[in-house]
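Let's see one such:

===
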Amino acid sequence: MGAASDDPELWAFLASRHRGEILSGTIAAIERFGVFVALDRGPDHPIFPGVGFISIPELSWRRFEAVSDVVQVGQRVSCVFLQFDTWNGEARLSLKATQPDPFQEFADTVGAGRRLRGQVTKLVPFGAFVRVAEGVEGLVPLQELTSEVVGTGDEVTVTVTDVDRERRRLFLSRRQA
């Protein structure tokens, strides 16, 4: 085992955390694979800049280009404890779990048959992704695209065909619009 497992104070601190618990701290370092958080009520980590760690997918519900678009070194954060990473001796955290899910808020107000305006964000072999609200994108499957060619950045009218709340998926049609 590594140096983290040799630190009884760190091990005891992490082992006493509970899933869903809110932990506060300061962003200590930003790496390409995630963010280290120096926790307020916790020991220092023997290797990493912080005992807390937020992976890229757990930073935000919305898409972002750079981690620095979401957090900055020195910024205060409150995060939800997800799990004790026994390999690295760190607290896996989620920043996005402290924020409302824009998809669920969208799904509360929009159902099948609703016409929306949106912007094409990505073209893929099986269709096009369209942003219809902040933090909410839906797929227009290839068979639901019209013969009109669309490009990334185009504004289009779409119709909601299905909202899958559980899997956070939105299906759209250009034909029905």
Residues 164 and 170 are 6 Å apart (CA to CA). DSSP finds two helices and ten strands in the chain. Strands lie at 22-31, 34-39, 52-55, 76-85, 90-94, 115-124, 127-133, 136-141, 155-164, 169-173.
